[in-house]
Sequence to fold (372 residues):
Amino acid sequence: MRVSSQDVTVVALLADPDAPTEIAQRMARMLPDRLADRSGQGRRFDVEVVSEPFTAGTEDLSTLTRRIMDRASEGNWDIVVALTDLPLHSQGRKLVVDLSHEHGLALLSLPALGGFRLPARARQAVEEAVLSLAGLRAGPEGPPGGQPLRGPFVSRLAPIRPGQVGEEEIADLRYVVTGPRGYLRVLGGMVRANRPWRLVPGLSKALAAALATGAVATVNSTIWVLATSLSTPRLVIAMVGSVTLMIGWLIVDANLWHRTDEVSPEAGKKAALYNASTVVTVGIGVIICYAGLVLINLVWALFILNDRLFAATTRTALHATEYWTLSWFVASVATVGGALGSGLESDEAIRAAAYSKREQERRSALQDDRGD
Fold:
């Protein structure tokens, strides 16, 4: 780490691969001007993005901080802000950001910023961290311990509060999320990091089985009779049941449920958080698949069904309501077929579709540890 000039501050964004790197590269284009405008006094900022898996194999804060310090010592930077999409914990709390003004370092956990407006929130958090670090290191007369962060990042409405820092820790300022809103915020951030929409193309064999089941069911006269005779509550029950079956089957078959060998309350809370993110991630992916099946079945029904044959079989005229009801019911049947077809997918393929790269590495490391 170099000694800063009076006019230019060089900032490195050390980002885990995949989503953190994408966010860092996006914000790096606008950060220099925004930081210069907010800092004033004619100071300029240069921002560099370094993509490295600095969280590989560990979630321990002290280990991560030492890694960031070692990497910072190799570069010609004034400030290093590290970004990861792993949820980090400190003394039972979910970490948002750690700052060390003495070393010019910050560690930001992106899931703690929530699942909505993540690029904007991440940029605000990085701006606040950089300005805090640069302001304290601008001269020897700076206040000890670091100034509280400001702006919308830590507004009164945000569930973000200062956290306790141990005497032997490198960080001197810490922010954590608290309360039920904080829990939901981290959960949303974890789900976003997993990118549940990627589950759709990732389950090719399951989708093929679902589409085949739907195509056959659409031309089955027994399905016609059932669809027209079922009430809306029963159609809803069929939908919920098929989606729940698909979610449960994917989690069980691919061994996605997180288990911990530790018996501490903190370990139990972490396991519950990881499992909640798995259920929501897989659930969103399955719901997207279900909606796609409804639309595909509707198009197929519009193309293939004969209104006279349908009316003769069901004693119901084939109108828009019947098309919709049949497509809805067939989607439920097809989802069950997709659940069976998902058994043809490898566990690795399902994990790759359901989790971010960091989360896949974390779970792989846990399995290796248990194997040893």
